[in-house]
Amino acid sequence: MSHTMENYFTTYDDAFLQDSFAEAILKTCVKYGKIAVENPENYEARSNIMWSNTWAINGLLSSGKHTSRSVHAMEHELSAFYDITHGIGLAILTPRWLKHVLNEKTENKIARFSKEVFQIEDKNITNQAIKGIESLYNFFESLEIPMQLKNLNINCEHIEEMAKNTIKHVGGSINGFVELNEEDVLNIYKESI
Questions:
Q1: Is the dihedral angle over the CA atoms 109, 180, 6, 127 positive or is it negative?
Q2: 8 A C-beta contact, residue 21 and residue 61
Q3: b/e per residue 10-24 (b: at least 16 CB within 10 A)
Q4: Is-contact 7 101, C-beta < 8 A?
Q5: Residues 5-48: pLDDT tens digits?
């Protein structure tokens, strides 16, 4: 889901087809994720999840788009310092990242995500976007993902160093959906504790 979302959440492109494919992948993960976790032998759920995984990272979703692995950059530092799997780290960070980057320029795209992936509609576009972020968080939580770093015995000990390293490794700032500097990354880590 993270590979899909980091290709999906871009601005200043008219990649309607790629975004529609991304929404279908995300809807598939939401529809079958819990089924696959609760019943790993369910072939329909597993095959749909695996087929979504194939499409999420085959390059189609990023075609014609300027993408930046915002959450991946932060998660790589997290799992470099702590014994946490990549997927769990991405799930914990992604809703906090979306909340952090929500603004007048990004709310339409996040609201579209809310509508297309979680069937949320609200007359207030900001509220619709917020509800989508909350739904993503709740979905990950429904998969029994510990949605706070403290639940994995991770505290604030290394977060300043992790934020500094994240920015250093990407060359000064993360230039993605919203440009992130060291302070932004630090705040996202703090929100995730």
A1: negative
A2: yes
A3: beeeebeebbebbbe
A4: no
A5: 989 998 777 889 999 999 999 999 999 999 999 999 999 999 99
Mean pLDDT value across the chain: 93
Structure tokens at 97: 């990242």
DSSP string, 69-109: -HHHHHHHHHHHHSS--HHHHHHHHHHHHHHHH-STTTHHH
How far is Cα 87 from Cα 172, in angstroms, rounded to an integer?
A: 25
Tokens 């946490």 sit on residue:
84
Distance of CA 65 to CAs 12, 25, 111, Å? 9, 17, 19
Token reading at 144: 């029994």
The tokens 């509220």 sit on which residue?
A: 127
Q: Is 28 helix (H, G, I), strand (E, B) or coil?
A: helix
Residue 77 has pLDDT above 90, yes or no: yes
What is the per-residue pLDDT for 66? 76
Residue 180 buriedness (CB in 10 A; 0-12 / 13-18 / 19+): buried
- pLDDT-derived band at 173 (thresholds 50, 70, 90) equals confident
The span from the CA of 94 to the CA of 26, in Å, is 14
